[in-house]
Design goal:
Helices cover 75% and strands 0% of the residues. By secondary structure, it is mostly helical. It has a single domain, classed as Up-down Bundle (Amino acid/polyamine transporter I), CATH 1.20.1740.10. Helix 4 (47-74) packs across helix 15 and helix 15 (353-381) packs across helix 17. The longest helix has 46 residues, at 268-313. The protein is globular. The chain starts with 16 loop residues before the first helix and ends with a helix.
């Protein structure tokens, strides 16, 4: 695939390494590690297996990042996975990859994180559950409004929130490791429901916590030197998060017994914060976690509209002329941002965030796995050509990422077949949309 066609206004190529790293780390570390501890533990059945699930999820994510880094360094354009799939497999699968991210995955993941954040906000301010959706909507609209400005504003917010989220993370790790006395490692959960899942589902839940690592690729056309910066940001960012997540989980299990975590569910982290640091300290820690989630939402709002923009530039979507609009001064795809925010708002009103998060991971891993296979196709296609970045330990790292991807897909099919049918159906619905758009284009040209 040739470099996407340009129009009058283009995106700014202004992001450096620290901005890219902040977006990777800030986008990954959000609600998952704070709200998924109980669901991972329930599915795994014991704290030892839960900790192992977080580690395996991190290893799958790291091998995935190493594999995609080689692909991304060869295609440093705005659009990320959408561009990769089209280049490797052709226009049809490329379109479905972009459609899935623009219509299903992007809005759903923003809605899920905002939903988790609103749970903590209502607890912090003593509000009823009825306030959760309004708070979540107001938050994403405010962050979306900020992203209508120059991309350096969003990148600056990513740096600030990434630095801010390290405070609650460090507090939980230090307190759990040095002041926790439960030593829950090895404990089993005695009240787990039979329907809560299995170890595969536990790993799947952790992957929501690691989700977001590939989104920096959507900004490839806005990096100063994407061939070098993209692989570096992905690898350093994922490795950092893997270490942090393992330490947080270990700290939580040092402080709370397994049955207590199961009983508290999504409120386990909030309970730990209050128990560890008192009412005031707990509130401050909760504020830090909320800031962390805002940073994650910011990263996703920065990146997903770029997929819509890239697709609109190729006239793959209805109303492409408007969706590809970039403001003359700020160089921001403002209509694409509004489109993603509107879909996310709708999903927040109709879906539970926990269920939504699992289905998001399944949907995107369908195309991740295709991309992982793609590294072998590109190596054969570009044999003898120099690569900006080569995946280490080839072919073993890509093979591990493929195995991890297939593991995710099979686990979710068995765990929630009807949810899988729904999300796959929405993805396939993109085919008639593409046909209609292309037919309209043909008529205009006649």
């Amino acid at each position: 695939m040739e470099k996407p066609q340009t129009t009058t206004e283009e995106l700014n190529r202004s992001l450096g390494l620290w901005s890219a790293l902040s977006i990777v780390i800030g986008t990954i570390i959000g609600s998952g590690i704070f709200f998924k501890q109980a669901s991972v533990l329930d599915s795994a059945g014991s704290s030892s297996l839960a900790l192992l699930a977080w580690v395996i999820g991190g290893v799958i994510t790291l091998t995935s990042g190493l594999t995609v880094a080689e692909i991304g360094a060869q295609m440093p354009y705005t659009g990320g996975l959408y561009v990769y799939i089209e280049n490797i497999y052709g226009r049809l699968l490329g379109f479905l990859s972009g459609w899935m991210q623009a219509i299903v995955y992007g809005p759903a993941i923003i809605a899920a994180v905002a939903g988790f954040m609103s749970i903590l906000m209502t607890e912090l301010f003593g509000l009823s559950a009825a306030w959760r959706v309004p708070l979540a909507v107001v938050t994403i609209l405010a962050i979306g409004g900020m992203n209508l400005l120059d991309n350096r504003v969003g990148a600056g917010f990513a740096i600030l929130t990434t630095a801010g989220k390290l405070i609650p993370i460090a507090a939980i790790i230090v307190f759990g490791l040095f002041f926790g006395h439960e030593d829950a490692i090895g404990q089993t959960v005695s009240q787990v429901q039979q329907s809560s899942g299995n170890f595969g589902v536990a790993v799947l839940a952790t992957l929501f916590g690691y989700d977001g690592w590939i989104l920096i690729a959507n900004l490839g056309g806005e990096m100063k030197n994407p061939q070098k910066l993209l692989p570096k940001a992905i690898i350093i960012g994922i490795t950092t998060v893997l270490v942090i997540y393992t330490l947080i989980t270990f700290g939580v299990f040092r402080f709370l017994p397994a049955d207590k975590i199961h009983q508290l569910g999504e409120g386990a982290t909030g309970y730990l914060a209050t128990a560890a640091f008192g009412k005031v300290g707990g509130r401050l820690l909760s504020i830090g976690i909320i800031i962390s989630m805002m940073g994650t939402i910011n990263g996703k709002i920065m990146t997903f509209p770029r997929i819509v923009y890239a697709m609109a530039k190729r006239r793959d979507l209805p109303f492409s002329r408007y969706l590809a609009y970039v403001t003359p001064k700020a160089k921001e795809p403002v209509v694409a941002i509004g489109f993603i925010l509107a879909l996310a708002t709708v999903m927040m009103c109709f879906f539970d965030p926990d269920h939504l998060s699992d289905l998001c991971v399944f949907t995107v891993y369908c195309f991740y796995t295709l991309a992982f296979f793609g590294i072998f196709i590109l190596r054969r296609r570009n044999k003898g050509k120099e690569r900006p970045f080569s995946t280490p330990l080839y072919p073993w790292i890509p093979l591990i990422s493929i195995a991890g991807g297939l593991f995710v897909l099979v686990s979710e099919v068995f765990n929630d077949p009807w949810g899988v049918v729904l999300f796959v159906g929405i993805t396939i619905l993109g085919l008639p949309v593409l046909w209609v758009v292309k037919e309209m284009d043909k008529r205009r040209q006649m």
